[in-house]
Amino acid sequence: MNVINFERNLPVFEEHQSSPILAEVVARPMCGKGRRGQELPASGIVGNYAYRDGKARFLGVTSQAFKIVQMRDLTDGAERAMRDVLGDRALQNVKVTDRMANNGAFVERRYTIGDATRKINYRDAGIKVGTTVGAEFRIRTGFDGQTATALSTGTLDLSCLNGQVSLRNTDAFAKRHTKNATVEIFLDWIEDGLERFDVKMDHLQLLADTSVSFEQAKAVIHKLPGISEARAKGLVDRVETEMVDRGRNAYAVLSALTYYSSHNKDQFKIRNTGNDNVASTLAAREVEVTRWVRSDVFKSLHQAAA
Predict the structure, then answer these.
(1) Per-residue pLDDT at 280
(2) pLDDT at 306
(3) Could you tell me which of 203, 256, 248 has the C-alpha nearest to residue 227?
(4) 44 closest CA partner among 66, 68, 67
(5) What is the pLDDT of residue 181?
(6) How much is the pLDDT for 188?
(7) Per DSSP, what are the bridge partners of residue 132?
(8) Contacts from 90-93 at CB under 8 Å and sequence distance 24+?
């Protein structure tokens, strides 16, 4: 079943209309074969397929009750809302990034808003160059029953491409493939996200103003909820690198965490399972980092800034 239909091909986004993440997904009945080759219908389940590159691509098996939300319908709704909120001129400075994993069972589109940026200044002696952070809007859905349809807002450090997503109920729409995605939801998502961006940037500047020693950061990393010893070691090593670039402050510690959730390299290389799993693994890491950042352990680093 398809939900949410909007007018196609908003001109400013036309170059992205052929993206493989926008391939139509359909459900087909599943059946097995008996000992004598007879078909054995599998009641209650369906197979979901995307048509890409002239072929039907198998995405996964779900229950018959699973509602397919076409990614194209989500992006059309989002892009129409952006035009209404930002205006055509600002849309020229929107960067679109698409991600896909598990043969297309997981798809995501990110919009970085070029006209919504702010500078973060580092206060440490000797660190005169700051960084620029932009507002980012993300749409994510899946077709194998493993990923909820979600609209979320976040920030992107434009100097290193570290991203941080916010998953609060007030700025994210997340439903397990629902019929209730309306034009108003997309408008609220954009308007609320832009309002929250300024609040978020004030907080990030406070983190950059909060002095943290390497030993303090190391102790906090090892106490993050659910963290393994190997992961903690990698993050501590990353904190050391970030502190060289950004100074000894709480923002450098946050940047080490968001580097882990944004990159598939260095000490955070994702194991190749042969199943095209990088984008979905990074998405899972984002949720993990969000939990860490909200923990009392991390907040103890920046009580003055919290």
Answers:
(1) 87
(2) 45
(3) 256
(4) 66
(5) 54
(6) 87
(7) 119
(8) 90/114, 90/115, 91/12, 91/13, 92/12
Cα separation of 19 and 7, whole Å? 17
Contact between 50 and 41 under an 8 Å Cβ cutoff? The reply is no
Q: Label residue 163 left, alpha or beta by phi (over 0 means left) and psi (-120 to 50 means alpha).
A: beta
Residue 99, CB-side half-sphere exposure with 13 Å CA sphere = 20
In sequence order, which residues have a C-beta less than 8 Å from that of residue 166 and are 6 or more positions away? 152, 153, 154, 172, 196, 200, 290
What confidence score (pLDDT) does residue 266 get? 79
Q: Which two three-digit tokens encode residue 275?
A: 């199943």
First to last CA, the chain: 44
Q: List the chain residues with pLDDT less than 50.
A: 1-9, 167-173, 175-179, 304-306
Tokens 């990353």 belong to residue: 238
pLDDT of residue 2: 34
Q: What is the pLDDT of residue 159?
A: 67
- Asked if residue 280 lies in contact with residue 101, where contact means CB atoms within 8 angstroms, the answer is yes
**DSSP tag of 249:** B
Kindly report the pTM of this predicted structure. Answer: 0.81
- Residue 277 vs residues 95, 102, 172, 272, 284: alpha-carbon distances, Å: 23, 6, 24, 8, 11
Tokens of 215: 């030993």
**What is the rounded distance in angstroms from the CA atom of residue 146 to the CA atom of residue 95?**
27
Amino acid identity of residue 157, one-letter, is D
**What are the tokens at 250?**
């709480």
pLDDT of residue 9: 45
- Cα separation, 248 vs 209, in Å, equals 9
User: Residue 73 and residue 177: Cα distance in Å, rounded?
Assistant: 13
How do the domains of the chain map onto residue ranges? 206-302
Q: Can you list the alpha helix ranges (DSSP code H) found in the chain?
A: 71-86, 88-91, 183-209, 214-223, 229-246, 250-262, 278-294, 296-299
Q: Give the tokens for residue 10.
A: 């908003």
